[in-house]
Amino acid sequence: MSVDGYQEGGIRVMCQSSGWYPEPEVLWRSLSGQYLPSFSESKSRGESGLFETQTSIIITENSNQNISCLIRNTHFNHEKESTIFISDPFFPRVSPWMVALCVILVVLVGFIGLTAYLFRLKGKHLENNRKHLENN
């Protein structure tokens, strides 16, 4: 098992194994024993005729962070299991200060744009009044 990086708001965990015959079954399982869906899965037959498998799952902060990858051969009743726990500090977080700063910047840019528009409008209005007075 390996941690493959951040993806889709969570952490992608990869499970790889080779040297299986016949083709193995691959399952993700939570700490409570509940089976979880894979994000991706591929199986191939190597040059030696043995099967290789690679599967991944996305673990989010709110999901079960303690998971196992179970690879088993149902014909020979053989299985391998590997478990990983990913603690909270590894999950990407959005700082409340960054959100507040972005909101303030958007409001500030909008205010500056509105002010510039109103000054331009006032300038055109004054120009029209000046031309109107000159013509009379």
Automatic annotation (TrEMBL):
Q: Can you name one GO molecular function term for this protein?
A: signaling receptor binding
Swiss-Prot/TrEMBL keywords: Immunoglobulin domain, Membrane, Transmembrane, Transmembrane helix
Which SUPFAM superfamilies does this entry report, sorted A to Z? Immunoglobulin
InterPro entries attached to this UniProt entry: BTN3A2-like_Ig-C, Ig-like_dom, Ig-like_dom_sf, Ig-like_fold, IgSF_BTN/MOG
Q: Which domain of life is it from?
A: Eukaryota
GO-annotated cellular components: external side of plasma membrane
A Gene Ontology biological process term: T cell receptor signaling pathway
Segments spanning the bilayer are: 97-119
Q: Where is the Ig-like domain?
A: 1-85
What does the UniProt entry say about where the protein is found?
Membrane
Q: Which PROSITE patterns match?
A: IG_LIKE (PS50835)
Protein's UniProt name? Ig-like domain-containing protein
